[in-house]
TrEMBL record:
Keyword terms, alphabetized: ATP-binding, Kinase, Membrane, Nucleotide-binding, Transferase, Transmembrane, Transmembrane helix
Keyword Transmembrane (UniProt): yes
Provenance organism: Stigmatella aurantiaca (strain DW4/3-1)
Pfam family, one: Pkinase
SMART domains cross-referenced by the UniProt entry: S_TKc (SM00220)
InterPro entries for the chain: Kinase-like_dom_sf, Prot_kinase_dom, Ser/Thr_kinase_AS
Source organism superkingdom: Bacteria
Region (Disordered): 273-312
Entry's Gene Ontology molecular function annotations: ATP binding; protein serine/threonine kinase activity
Protein kinase domain ranges (all copies): 4-277
Protein name from the UniProt record: Protein kinase
Residue stretches spanning the membrane: 321-342
Length: 460
Protein backbone atom coordinates (compact mmCIF):
# COMPACT_ATOMS: atom_id res chain seq x y z
CA UNK A 1 0.00 0.00 0.00
CA UNK A 2 1.96 2.96 -1.25
CA UNK A 3 5.36 2.92 0.44
CA UNK A 4 4.10 0.90 3.41
CA UNK A 5 4.12 -2.79 4.18
CA UNK A 6 1.38 -4.08 6.46
CA UNK A 7 2.57 -6.18 9.39
CA UNK A 8 -0.65 -6.87 11.25
CA UNK A 9 -4.26 -5.87 11.49
CA UNK A 10 -4.94 -3.83 14.63
CA UNK A 11 -8.63 -2.89 14.46
CA UNK A 12 -11.62 -2.51 12.17
CA UNK A 13 -14.64 -0.26 11.92
CA UNK A 14 -17.50 1.13 9.89
CA UNK A 15 -15.35 3.77 8.24
CA UNK A 16 -11.85 2.34 8.37
CA UNK A 17 -9.39 -0.32 9.38
CA UNK A 18 -6.14 0.19 11.31
CA UNK A 19 -2.97 -1.77 10.60
CA UNK A 20 0.52 -1.79 11.99
CA UNK A 21 2.80 -1.03 9.06
CA UNK A 22 6.44 -0.16 8.31
CA UNK A 23 8.02 1.77 5.42
CA UNK A 24 9.02 -0.46 2.53
CA UNK A 25 12.32 1.28 1.78
CA UNK A 26 13.62 1.90 5.31
CA UNK A 27 15.22 -0.89 7.32
CA UNK A 28 14.53 -1.11 11.05
CA UNK A 29 12.06 1.75 10.83
CA UNK A 30 9.63 2.32 13.66
CA UNK A 31 6.13 1.07 12.84
CA UNK A 32 3.23 3.34 12.05
CA UNK A 33 -0.52 3.09 12.47
CA UNK A 34 -1.96 2.89 8.95
CA UNK A 35 -5.62 3.78 8.80
CA UNK A 36 -7.42 2.77 5.60
CA UNK A 37 -10.86 3.99 4.53
CA UNK A 38 -13.40 1.27 3.88
CA UNK A 39 -15.69 3.69 2.05
CA UNK A 40 -14.24 4.73 -1.33
CA UNK A 41 -13.10 8.37 -1.40
CA UNK A 42 -14.25 8.89 2.20
CA UNK A 43 -13.92 12.66 2.84
CA UNK A 44 -13.37 12.12 6.58
CA UNK A 45 -9.82 11.04 5.86
CA UNK A 46 -8.97 14.22 3.99
CA UNK A 47 -10.33 16.18 6.95
CA UNK A 48 -8.22 14.25 9.44
CA UNK A 49 -5.12 14.68 7.28
CA UNK A 50 -5.77 18.41 7.05
CA UNK A 51 -6.21 18.78 10.81
CA UNK A 52 -3.09 16.77 11.62
CA UNK A 53 -1.15 18.78 9.05
CA UNK A 54 -2.22 22.06 10.64
CA UNK A 55 -1.74 21.20 14.31
CA UNK A 56 1.40 19.67 15.77
CA UNK A 57 1.52 18.85 19.47
CA UNK A 58 3.00 16.10 21.69
CA UNK A 59 -0.50 15.16 22.87
CA UNK A 60 -1.85 14.71 19.34
CA UNK A 61 -0.94 11.97 16.83
CA UNK A 62 1.87 12.81 14.42
CA UNK A 63 1.01 12.41 10.74
CA UNK A 64 3.65 10.49 8.79
CA UNK A 65 2.05 9.91 5.41
CA UNK A 66 -1.20 9.87 3.46
CA UNK A 67 -2.30 8.68 0.06
CA UNK A 68 -4.75 6.62 -1.99
CA UNK A 69 -4.90 2.84 -2.23
CA UNK A 70 -6.60 1.24 -5.24
CA UNK A 71 -8.68 -1.81 -4.49
CA UNK A 72 -8.34 -4.72 -6.97
CA UNK A 73 -11.91 -3.92 -7.96
CA UNK A 74 -10.86 -0.43 -9.02
CA UNK A 75 -12.27 1.68 -6.15
CA UNK A 76 -9.99 4.26 -4.55
CA UNK A 77 -9.58 4.30 -0.76
CA UNK A 78 -7.71 7.07 1.08
CA UNK A 79 -5.33 6.15 3.86
CA UNK A 80 -3.16 7.95 6.37
CA UNK A 81 -0.27 6.87 8.57
CA UNK A 82 0.45 8.14 12.07
CA UNK A 83 3.01 7.24 14.68
CA UNK A 84 2.26 3.95 16.36
CA UNK A 85 1.22 4.52 19.97
CA UNK A 86 1.98 1.68 22.35
CA UNK A 87 -0.75 2.43 24.83
CA UNK A 88 -4.25 1.71 26.06
CA UNK A 89 -7.60 3.53 25.84
CA UNK A 90 -8.11 5.86 28.79
CA UNK A 91 -10.76 3.91 30.71
CA UNK A 92 -8.98 0.60 30.16
CA UNK A 93 -5.72 2.15 31.33
CA UNK A 94 -7.41 3.46 34.47
CA UNK A 95 -8.80 0.02 35.32
CA UNK A 96 -5.32 -1.48 35.13
CA UNK A 97 -3.31 1.29 36.80
CA UNK A 98 -5.79 2.64 39.36
CA UNK A 99 -4.60 6.26 39.13
CA UNK A 100 -4.48 8.77 41.95
CA UNK A 101 -6.08 12.21 41.76
CA UNK A 102 -2.69 13.65 40.88
CA UNK A 103 -2.30 11.27 37.93
CA UNK A 104 -5.81 12.07 36.70
CA UNK A 105 -5.09 15.80 36.91
CA UNK A 106 -1.96 15.33 34.81
CA UNK A 107 -3.77 13.25 32.19
CA UNK A 108 -6.55 15.82 31.92
CA UNK A 109 -3.93 18.56 31.59
CA UNK A 110 -2.38 16.67 28.66
CA UNK A 111 -5.75 16.58 26.91
CA UNK A 112 -6.47 20.23 27.69
CA UNK A 113 -3.12 21.15 26.11
CA UNK A 114 -4.05 19.16 23.01
CA UNK A 115 -7.34 21.06 22.80
CA UNK A 116 -5.48 24.32 23.34
CA UNK A 117 -3.32 23.57 20.30
CA UNK A 118 -6.39 22.76 18.20
CA UNK A 119 -8.39 25.78 19.34
CA UNK A 120 -5.44 28.11 18.72
CA UNK A 121 -5.66 27.19 15.03
CA UNK A 122 -9.43 27.68 14.96
CA UNK A 123 -9.95 23.90 14.94
CA UNK A 124 -12.27 21.71 16.99
CA UNK A 125 -12.13 18.04 17.89
CA UNK A 126 -15.90 17.51 18.36
CA UNK A 127 -15.62 13.94 19.69
CA UNK A 128 -13.59 14.09 22.91
CA UNK A 129 -14.21 10.92 24.94
CA UNK A 130 -12.39 8.10 26.64
CA UNK A 131 -12.23 5.86 23.58
CA UNK A 132 -10.47 8.64 21.68
CA UNK A 133 -7.72 8.95 24.28
CA UNK A 134 -4.66 6.70 24.36
CA UNK A 135 -2.38 6.59 27.39
CA UNK A 136 1.14 5.58 26.43
CA UNK A 137 2.57 2.74 28.48
CA UNK A 138 6.12 4.07 28.64
CA UNK A 139 5.43 7.45 30.27
CA UNK A 140 1.63 7.72 30.86
CA UNK A 141 1.38 10.48 28.28
CA UNK A 142 -2.21 11.00 27.10
CA UNK A 143 -2.84 11.52 23.39
CA UNK A 144 -6.11 12.82 21.97
CA UNK A 145 -6.82 10.79 18.85
CA UNK A 146 -9.38 10.39 16.04
CA UNK A 147 -9.76 13.80 14.45
CA UNK A 148 -12.04 12.51 11.71
CA UNK A 149 -15.03 14.30 13.26
CA UNK A 150 -13.06 17.50 13.77
CA UNK A 151 -13.41 20.81 12.02
CA UNK A 152 -11.06 23.52 10.81
CA UNK A 153 -11.88 26.99 9.45
CA UNK A 154 -13.74 26.95 6.13
CA UNK A 155 -14.11 23.17 6.19
CA UNK A 156 -17.07 21.83 4.25
CA UNK A 157 -19.99 20.32 6.15
CA UNK A 158 -19.96 16.54 5.72
CA UNK A 159 -22.94 15.44 7.80
CA UNK A 160 -26.50 16.80 7.60
CA UNK A 161 -28.70 17.25 10.62
CA UNK A 162 -29.22 19.59 13.53
CA UNK A 163 -26.09 18.58 15.43
CA UNK A 164 -22.54 17.92 14.18
CA UNK A 165 -20.95 14.47 14.55
CA UNK A 166 -20.16 13.33 18.06
CA UNK A 167 -21.20 10.97 20.86
CA UNK A 168 -24.55 11.80 22.53
CA UNK A 169 -23.40 11.19 26.11
CA UNK A 170 -20.75 13.88 25.67
CA UNK A 171 -22.97 16.59 24.15
CA UNK A 172 -22.79 19.99 25.81
CA UNK A 173 -25.91 21.52 27.41
CA UNK A 174 -26.01 24.23 24.76
CA UNK A 175 -25.95 21.62 21.97
CA UNK A 176 -28.77 19.64 23.63
CA UNK A 177 -30.86 22.79 24.09
CA UNK A 178 -30.26 23.79 20.48
CA UNK A 179 -31.58 20.46 19.23
CA UNK A 180 -34.54 20.73 21.57
CA UNK A 181 -35.31 24.21 20.27
CA UNK A 182 -34.77 23.61 16.56
CA UNK A 183 -35.16 19.88 15.88
CA UNK A 184 -38.15 20.61 13.62
CA UNK A 185 -36.21 23.12 11.52
CA UNK A 186 -34.43 21.24 8.71
CA UNK A 187 -32.19 24.25 8.05
CA UNK A 188 -30.99 24.65 11.64
CA UNK A 189 -27.45 23.43 12.29
CA UNK A 190 -25.61 23.82 15.58
CA UNK A 191 -22.16 25.38 15.30
CA UNK A 192 -19.84 23.73 17.80
CA UNK A 193 -17.47 25.92 19.80
CA UNK A 194 -14.33 25.29 21.89
CA UNK A 195 -16.53 25.18 24.99
CA UNK A 196 -18.20 22.04 23.59
CA UNK A 197 -14.81 20.26 23.59
CA UNK A 198 -14.21 21.34 27.19
CA UNK A 199 -17.59 20.05 28.31
CA UNK A 200 -16.85 16.68 26.64
CA UNK A 201 -13.54 16.61 28.50
CA UNK A 202 -15.51 17.19 31.71
CA UNK A 203 -17.78 14.23 30.89
CA UNK A 204 -14.68 12.14 30.24
CA UNK A 205 -13.22 13.14 33.61
CA UNK A 206 -16.50 12.51 35.45
CA UNK A 207 -16.82 9.08 33.86
CA UNK A 208 -13.18 8.34 34.67
CA UNK A 209 -13.46 8.94 38.43
CA UNK A 210 -17.05 7.81 39.07
CA UNK A 211 -17.79 5.14 36.46
CA UNK A 212 -20.94 7.05 35.49
CA UNK A 213 -21.98 9.71 33.01
CA UNK A 214 -23.22 13.08 34.32
CA UNK A 215 -26.86 13.89 33.67
CA UNK A 216 -28.42 17.22 32.82
CA UNK A 217 -31.44 18.46 34.74
CA UNK A 218 -34.98 18.65 33.42
CA UNK A 219 -35.39 21.36 30.75
CA UNK A 220 -38.05 24.03 31.16
CA UNK A 221 -39.48 26.45 28.59
CA UNK A 222 -40.11 30.09 29.40
CA UNK A 223 -42.98 32.28 28.21
CA UNK A 224 -41.08 33.16 25.05
CA UNK A 225 -40.78 29.48 24.14
CA UNK A 226 -37.04 29.25 24.86
CA UNK A 227 -35.74 26.14 26.58
CA UNK A 228 -33.49 26.33 29.65
CA UNK A 229 -31.84 23.84 31.98
CA UNK A 230 -32.16 24.09 35.74
CA UNK A 231 -28.70 22.65 36.36
CA UNK A 232 -26.68 19.46 36.52
CA UNK A 233 -28.79 16.64 37.92
CA UNK A 234 -25.88 14.38 38.86
CA UNK A 235 -24.07 14.77 42.17
CA UNK A 236 -20.53 16.07 42.39
CA UNK A 237 -17.83 13.46 41.68
CA UNK A 238 -16.68 13.67 45.28
CA UNK A 239 -20.12 12.52 46.40
CA UNK A 240 -19.95 9.33 44.33
CA UNK A 241 -16.26 8.71 44.99
CA UNK A 242 -14.90 10.17 48.25
CA UNK A 243 -11.36 9.44 47.03
CA UNK A 244 -11.54 12.30 44.52
CA UNK A 245 -9.34 15.23 45.53
CA UNK A 246 -11.29 18.45 46.21
CA UNK A 247 -9.37 20.36 43.53
CA UNK A 248 -10.05 17.69 40.93
CA UNK A 249 -13.70 17.68 41.96
CA UNK A 250 -13.94 21.45 41.49
CA UNK A 251 -12.26 21.40 38.08
CA UNK A 252 -14.53 18.64 36.79
CA UNK A 253 -17.57 20.66 37.87
CA UNK A 254 -16.07 23.70 36.15
CA UNK A 255 -15.81 21.80 32.87
CA UNK A 256 -19.44 20.68 33.30
CA UNK A 257 -20.74 24.22 33.87
CA UNK A 258 -24.02 24.91 32.09
CA UNK A 259 -22.75 28.32 30.99
CA UNK A 260 -20.00 27.91 28.38
CA UNK A 261 -18.09 31.01 29.49
CA UNK A 262 -17.67 29.55 32.97
CA UNK A 263 -15.60 26.68 31.55
CA UNK A 264 -12.93 29.14 30.44
CA UNK A 265 -10.47 28.35 27.67
CA UNK A 266 -8.45 25.21 27.12
CA UNK A 267 -5.30 27.10 28.07
CA UNK A 268 -6.82 28.35 31.33
CA UNK A 269 -8.09 24.88 32.13
CA UNK A 270 -4.71 23.27 31.40
CA UNK A 271 -2.95 25.73 33.70
CA UNK A 272 -5.46 25.09 36.48
CA UNK A 273 -5.10 21.32 36.11
CA UNK A 274 -1.31 21.51 36.15
CA UNK A 275 -1.33 23.77 39.19
CA UNK A 276 -3.67 21.40 41.02
CA UNK A 277 -1.44 18.44 40.13
CA UNK A 278 1.59 20.24 41.54
CA UNK A 279 -0.16 21.17 44.78
CA UNK A 280 -1.70 17.76 45.37
CA UNK A 281 0.41 15.63 47.69
CA UNK A 282 0.43 12.08 46.29
CA UNK A 283 1.56 10.62 49.60
CA UNK A 284 -1.64 11.78 51.27
CA UNK A 285 -3.96 10.26 48.71
CA UNK A 286 -5.79 6.95 48.97
CA UNK A 287 -4.38 4.18 46.84
CA UNK A 288 -6.50 4.94 43.79
CA UNK A 289 -9.63 6.39 42.26
CA UNK A 290 -11.00 2.97 41.30
CA UNK A 291 -14.69 3.82 41.53
CA UNK A 292 -15.62 0.20 40.91
CA UNK A 293 -14.30 -0.69 44.36
CA UNK A 294 -17.21 1.23 45.85
CA UNK A 295 -19.73 -0.18 43.41
CA UNK A 296 -18.66 -3.79 43.95
CA UNK A 297 -20.67 -4.04 47.14
CA UNK A 298 -23.86 -2.68 45.59
CA UNK A 299 -26.77 -5.17 45.84
CA UNK A 300 -27.79 -7.00 42.71
CA UNK A 301 -30.93 -5.76 41.03
CA UNK A 302 -33.58 -8.17 39.85
CA UNK A 303 -34.46 -6.33 36.67
CA UNK A 304 -33.45 -3.30 34.60
CA UNK A 305 -35.43 -0.80 36.66
CA UNK A 306 -35.46 2.91 35.80
CA UNK A 307 -33.06 3.63 38.64
CA UNK A 308 -30.57 1.05 37.42
CA UNK A 309 -30.74 2.41 33.89
CA UNK A 310 -30.19 5.88 35.29
CA UNK A 311 -27.08 4.76 37.13
CA UNK A 312 -25.84 3.11 33.96
CA UNK A 313 -25.86 6.44 32.16
CA UNK A 314 -29.45 6.84 30.92
CA UNK A 315 -31.73 9.22 32.85
CA UNK A 316 -34.85 7.68 34.29
CA UNK A 317 -36.86 10.76 33.39
CA UNK A 318 -37.62 11.13 29.70
CA UNK A 319 -35.95 14.31 28.50
CA UNK A 320 -37.28 15.75 25.22
CA UNK A 321 -33.94 16.32 23.52
CA UNK A 322 -32.95 12.73 24.20
CA UNK A 323 -35.78 11.17 22.21
CA UNK A 324 -33.45 10.81 19.23
CA UNK A 325 -30.30 10.17 21.21
CA UNK A 326 -31.39 7.71 23.88
CA UNK A 327 -34.85 6.44 22.97
CA UNK A 328 -33.36 3.71 20.80
CA UNK A 329 -31.10 2.66 23.66
CA UNK A 330 -33.69 2.76 26.45
CA UNK A 331 -36.97 1.85 24.73
CA UNK A 332 -36.55 0.29 21.30
CA UNK A 333 -34.47 -2.74 22.38
CA UNK A 334 -37.02 -3.54 25.08
CA UNK A 335 -39.87 -3.27 22.59
CA UNK A 336 -38.00 -5.43 20.11
CA UNK A 337 -37.26 -8.03 22.73
CA UNK A 338 -40.86 -7.93 23.91
CA UNK A 339 -42.08 -8.84 20.43
CA UNK A 340 -39.35 -11.27 19.41
CA UNK A 341 -39.02 -13.31 22.56
CA UNK A 342 -41.59 -15.70 24.02
CA UNK A 343 -43.79 -14.39 26.79
CA UNK A 344 -41.05 -14.79 29.39
CA UNK A 345 -39.53 -11.83 31.22
CA UNK A 346 -37.16 -9.40 29.61
CA UNK A 347 -33.48 -9.25 30.47
CA UNK A 348 -32.93 -9.83 34.16
CA UNK A 349 -29.16 -9.74 34.29
CA UNK A 350 -27.67 -7.33 36.79
CA UNK A 351 -27.26 -3.82 35.39
CA UNK A 352 -26.18 -1.84 38.44
CA UNK A 353 -23.65 0.92 37.93
CA UNK A 354 -22.31 -0.38 34.66
CA UNK A 355 -18.79 0.28 33.50
CA UNK A 356 -19.72 1.68 30.10
CA UNK A 357 -17.56 1.93 27.02
CA UNK A 358 -18.00 4.84 24.69
CA UNK A 359 -20.08 4.18 21.67
CA UNK A 360 -17.87 4.58 18.75
CA UNK A 361 -14.26 3.59 18.53
CA UNK A 362 -11.87 0.76 19.07
CA UNK A 363 -8.57 -0.54 17.75
CA UNK A 364 -4.88 0.10 18.29
CA UNK A 365 -2.71 2.77 16.78
CA UNK A 366 -4.85 5.89 16.82
CA UNK A 367 -8.10 4.31 18.08
CA UNK A 368 -9.81 6.05 15.25
CA UNK A 369 -12.50 3.75 13.91
CA UNK A 370 -15.62 2.12 15.37
CA UNK A 371 -15.65 -1.67 15.33
CA UNK A 372 -17.87 -3.24 12.71
CA UNK A 373 -18.50 -6.41 10.79
CA UNK A 374 -16.90 -5.01 7.64
CA UNK A 375 -14.14 -7.31 6.47
CA UNK A 376 -10.60 -5.95 6.43
CA UNK A 377 -9.55 -4.95 2.90
CA UNK A 378 -6.11 -6.52 3.33
CA UNK A 379 -5.34 -9.97 4.74
CA UNK A 380 -4.22 -9.60 8.32
CA UNK A 381 -2.84 -11.58 11.16
CA UNK A 382 -5.35 -12.89 13.67
CA UNK A 383 -5.83 -11.35 17.09
CA UNK A 384 -6.61 -7.83 18.15
CA UNK A 385 -9.78 -6.27 19.52
CA UNK A 386 -12.13 -8.25 21.72
CA UNK A 387 -14.99 -7.65 19.26
CA UNK A 388 -13.49 -10.44 17.14
CA UNK A 389 -14.20 -12.96 19.92
CA UNK A 390 -17.74 -14.41 19.94
CA UNK A 391 -19.71 -13.36 23.03
CA UNK A 392 -19.82 -15.71 25.98
CA UNK A 393 -23.10 -17.25 27.05
CA UNK A 394 -24.48 -15.72 30.24
CA UNK A 395 -26.14 -17.57 33.13
CA UNK A 396 -29.81 -18.10 32.41
CA UNK A 397 -29.47 -17.48 28.68
CA UNK A 398 -31.42 -19.57 26.19
CA UNK A 399 -29.35 -22.06 24.20
CA UNK A 400 -29.94 -23.58 20.75
CA UNK A 401 -31.56 -27.00 20.47
CA UNK A 402 -29.79 -30.17 19.39
CA UNK A 403 -29.95 -29.04 15.76
CA UNK A 404 -28.39 -25.70 16.57
CA UNK A 405 -31.62 -23.71 16.18
CA UNK A 406 -33.06 -21.08 18.50
CA UNK A 407 -36.72 -20.84 19.50
CA UNK A 408 -37.63 -18.12 16.98
CA UNK A 409 -36.28 -17.27 13.53
CA UNK A 410 -35.35 -13.73 14.63
CA UNK A 411 -32.94 -15.19 17.19
CA UNK A 412 -29.37 -15.93 16.16
CA UNK A 413 -27.44 -18.97 17.45
CA UNK A 414 -23.88 -17.95 18.29
CA UNK A 415 -21.20 -19.58 20.42
CA UNK A 416 -23.65 -21.86 22.23
CA UNK A 417 -26.27 -19.20 23.00
CA UNK A 418 -29.28 -17.51 21.42
CA UNK A 419 -28.99 -13.79 20.68
CA UNK A 420 -30.93 -10.88 19.19
CA UNK A 421 -28.96 -8.86 16.64
CA UNK A 422 -29.56 -5.10 17.03
CA UNK A 423 -28.16 -1.92 15.44
CA UNK A 424 -27.26 -0.45 18.85
CA UNK A 425 -23.95 1.34 19.37
CA UNK A 426 -21.53 -0.08 21.90
CA UNK A 427 -22.53 2.32 24.68
CA UNK A 428 -26.21 1.35 24.56
CA UNK A 429 -25.30 -2.30 23.98
CA UNK A 430 -23.20 -2.39 27.15
CA UNK A 431 -25.99 -0.73 29.11
CA UNK A 432 -28.34 -3.62 28.26
CA UNK A 433 -25.63 -6.20 28.95
CA UNK A 434 -25.22 -7.05 25.31
CA UNK A 435 -21.98 -7.97 23.55
CA UNK A 436 -20.34 -6.34 20.56
CA UNK A 437 -19.15 -8.84 17.96
CA UNK A 438 -17.71 -7.61 14.65
CA UNK A 439 -19.48 -4.29 14.99
CA UNK A 440 -22.92 -5.72 15.80
CA UNK A 441 -24.64 -5.65 19.18
CA UNK A 442 -25.98 -9.05 20.32
CA UNK A 443 -28.48 -9.07 23.20
CA UNK A 444 -28.80 -12.38 25.10
CA UNK A 445 -32.15 -14.16 24.96
CA UNK A 446 -33.22 -15.29 28.46
CA UNK A 447 -35.18 -18.41 29.32
CA UNK A 448 -38.87 -18.07 30.02
CA UNK A 449 -38.27 -18.58 33.71
CA UNK A 450 -36.94 -15.64 35.70
CA UNK A 451 -33.35 -16.42 36.54
CA UNK A 452 -31.43 -15.40 39.66
CA UNK A 453 -29.56 -12.14 39.23
CA UNK A 454 -26.85 -12.72 41.78
CA UNK A 455 -24.58 -14.42 39.27
CA UNK A 456 -21.51 -12.36 38.46
CA UNK A 457 -21.61 -10.83 35.01
CA UNK A 458 -18.58 -10.33 32.84
CA UNK A 459 -17.17 -6.89 32.30
CA UNK A 460 -18.05 -5.42 28.92
Amino acid sequence: MGNWRVLAWAGGGVHGAVYQAVPVDIERATPGALKLALIPRDPRFAREVELLSRVHHPNLPSLRDSGIWQHPGGTLHPFLVMDWVDGAPLYDWAQRHRPSSQQVLRLLAHLARALQALHAQGCLHRDVKGDNVLVRHSDSLALLTDLGSGRYPDAATLTPGTLPPGTPAYRSPEACLFELQFFRDPKAHYSAQPADDLYALGVTAYRLVTGEYPELGEPVRDEAGTWHLAGLASPAPLTLNPRVDVQLNALILRMLSLRPEQRGTAEELAEALEQAARSTNPSSLPRSLEAADMHAQAPAESSPTPSSIERAGHPARAQPWQFRLAAAAALLPLLVLGTLLWRGPLLTFQMGRARLNDGGTTGLGDKAVPTSAVAAPIPSTPGGPTEDTPPEVLPGQRRPDAKGRCARPQQTPLNGGCWIKTPLAREECDTLKGSMFKGTCYLPVPHHERQPTSHPVRNP
